[in-house]
Specification:
This protein has a two-stranded antiparallel ribbon. Strand 1 and strand 2 form a beta hairpin. It has 193 residues and is mainly α. The chain has seven helices and two strands; from the N terminus they run ββααααααα. The chain is 60% helix and 3% strand. The protein has a domain of 130 residues.
Length: 193
């Protein structure tokens, strides 16, 4: 505390930041983390909409719990191999980002090889029932990002990862969108004149 004209001034609360913020110096990881959070939220919403928790258990062990069936093409697609593939690709994107943050070149290369293989494999499986070309583009971006990361070129991989995350988020949102509501039928009141 200092005295200024008979008034005590506390300089501890008027701290000014020295140097650039973390976000400004780490734009790429911040953008990837933000995009990844969006993907995780979308996957969580999809899982919740599909009863993503564990199956209900019964005290009677002689009959298995009934499995709910998918009712839309999007649900069927996400409940099948495509959902498994998307989870694997998402885990690989997270692994590449974690490896990049750790600074381990070998971990980035290993995660890149894994992402490239998973994304290439997903391209051979059934495509999304909506926005199929965007889905293929996203998986292609992930495959190229994996190859770039495996070749120790994370600068080239980063924009591809961003583009893939954005595209996959759009596809999963479109696949899981609710059906449009129909307007209610007109009802005439028989008691009106």
């Amino acid at each position: 505390m200092a005295h200024a004209g008979g008034v005590q001034v506390n300089h501890a609360s008027s701290h000014s930041w020295q140097g650039p913020s973390w976000i400004r110096t780490h734009k790429l990881p911040a953008a990837l983390i933000s995009a990844l959070i969006i993907v995780v939220v979308v996957v969580a919403i999809v899982a919740a909409a599909h009863g993503g928790g564990s199956a209900p258990t019964s005290t009677n062990t002689s009959t298995p719990a009934a499995k709910t069936t998918a009712t839309t093409k999007g649900e069927k697609w996400l409940d099948g191999r495509a959902g498994t593939n998307l989870q694997a690709v998402n885990a690989d994107v997270v692994a590449i980002n974690a490896a990049h943050r750790s600074g381990s070149r070998s971990a980035i290369e290993r995660a890149g090889r894994h992402l490239g293989a998973e994304a290439t494999g997903a391209l051979r499986d059934p495509v999304a029932p909506v926005d199929a070309s965007l889905y293929r583009t996203a998986l292609g971006d992930f495959a190229r990002a994996g190859r770039d990361a495996a070749g120790a070129d994370f600068r080239a991989a980063a924009p591809l990862l961003d583009a893939g995350i954005i595209d996959i988020t759009q596809v999963t949102a479109a696949v899981n969108s609710p059906a449009p509501a129909k307007a209610p039928a007109t009802v005439t009141d028989p008691n009106s004149p």
